[in-house]
Amino acid sequence: MWRNTMRFAAVLCRHLPPQMNPQNLTASLKKMILESAVKFSRPARTIAWSRALCSAPKDYGVPNPSWSAEMMSLYERYSAKGAESWERLPSYKRYLTYSAGGQCLSRLHKPTARLFTRNLEEEGAGFEYTVFANKAERRAVCLFQAGPLLEGPPGHVHGGAIATIIDSATGICATYLTGFVMTANLNINYRNPIPLGSVVLVECELDRTEGRKTFVSCRITSADGSKLHAEATALFVSVSVGTLIGF
Ligand SMILES: CCCCCCCC/C=C\CCCCCCCC(=O)SCCNC(=O)CCNC(=O)[C@H](O)C(C)(C)COP(=O)(O)OP(=O)(O)OC[C@H]1O[C@@H](n2cnc3c(N)ncnc32)[C@H](O)[C@@H]1OP(=O)(O)O
Fold first, then answer.
1. In 3D, which of 138, 147, 87, 97 has the Cα closest to residue 117?
2. Is position 207 annotated as part of the catalytic site?
3. Measured between alpha carbons, how far is 97 from 132 in angstroms, rounded to an integer?
């Protein structure tokens, strides 16, 4: 039993990101890993849990039946741009999933937690979005369809929901181009309300980097680009996975 436990703990540790070398783990994280290993080290469960820990995470950035014809048409347009260096980024229910071993870690560390923008199971109810990025041009574009549960002013999207999609899209752009970051500053000018159910483009561009700081600017427009809904600038600061997790 103890040998199984240690073997399982060793497997878990091997899947941790490089920044989380077992030698550097805090006592509490070591204890958490060991406790999980003890809990699941009974042979039959070990196999079942190893499978569960290694299963592929769901990608929320692919079309689902709630996507409108306009959302689908934009999705197909950006997918077809693949040849011009546009890459669709996968979207998971936890930020941790992007780190090496993050899938495993997210089952151990606050397992009931979910990314704010991916916390509704009902398709189309809240944030429906997908992000395409262009490394060479240091840009990303988020196609965003706002569901009915994001209402602020009657029939229109809540300003906090708009801030959330801006924070997410610019944060994904910064993470994609410079690695793990946290938002240090976000400034938004709301220009025109966004009707609920509509599809908008959230276009992000990396302006510059200075040491650990990444400056990103953003514009939200209607799908055809004719109406400006919001403009924003954001500052992100690079952090280690350890800082993200909170130890
Ligand atoms: C095929 C795979 C592709 C992968 C694609 C990737 C996809 C990614 C997927 C999913 C991403 C999801 C994205 C989500 C995004 C959401 C992010 C959030 O909402 S984060 C939550 C809200 N933010 C906080 O809670 C932070 C709270 N603040 C802090 O923790 C600290 O203040 C922190 C980390 C921001 C900075 O703290 P320090 O101690 O590490 O660093 P110090 O020394 O204070 O600052 C570093 C530099 O930044 C400047 N700075 C810091 N804060 C500033 C501010 N507010 N304004 C101006 N400058 C600031 C400082 O003056 C300093 O500048 P000088 O290096 O001296 O020039």
1. 147
2. no
3. 18
> How far lies 212's CA from each of 43, 175, 215, in Å?
45, 12, 10
Q: Which of 211, 201, 202, 143 shows the shortest CA–CA distance to 178?
A: 211
Domains for the chain: give ranges and CATH numbers: 2-54 (no CATH), 69-245 (3.10.129.10)
Centre a 10 Å sphere on the Cβ of residue 113 and count the other Cβ atoms it contains.
Answer: 13
pLDDT band at 13 (very low <50, low <70, confident <90, very high): very low
In this prediction the pTM is: 0.84
Q: How many CB atoms lie within 10 A of CB 94?
A: 20
Pocket of ligand 1 (CB under 6 A): 89, 95, 98, 167-168, 171-172, 175-176, 182-185, 211-213, 235, 237, 239
pLDDT tens-digit series, residues 73-88 = 999 999 998 667 899 9
